[in-house]
Amino acid sequence: RSESSGTEHSEDDDDGSESKRRKVKNLGSRIMQSASVLARALRSCEEKKEKRHREMIELEQRRIQMEEARNEVHRQGIATLVAAVTNLSGAIESLINNSERHG
Question: Which intervals of the chain are annotated as region Disordered (predicted)?
Fold first, then answer.
C-alpha cells in the first residue's frame, strides 16, 4: 500500500511538472509575442519620428526658398526704383538745362 501511494505521488509530480513546463513555455511564448509587438511599435514610432523630421526639414527649406525669393523681389523692386529715380533726376536736370538756355 505504501508503494502504491508512492507511485501515485510520483505520477502527480510528473503531471505537475509537465503542467508547470507548459505554463512556463506558454509564458515564454507570450513574452516573445509581447516583445515582438513592442519592437514593431517602437520601430513604427521611430519611422514616424524620422518622417516628421524629414517633413520639418523640407518645410524649413521651402520657407528659406520663399524668403530668398521675396528678398530677390524686393531687391529687384529697389533696383527698379533707383533706376526710375535716376531717370527722373536726369530728366529734371535736362529740363533745367533747357530752360536756362531758353530762358
Answer: 1-29
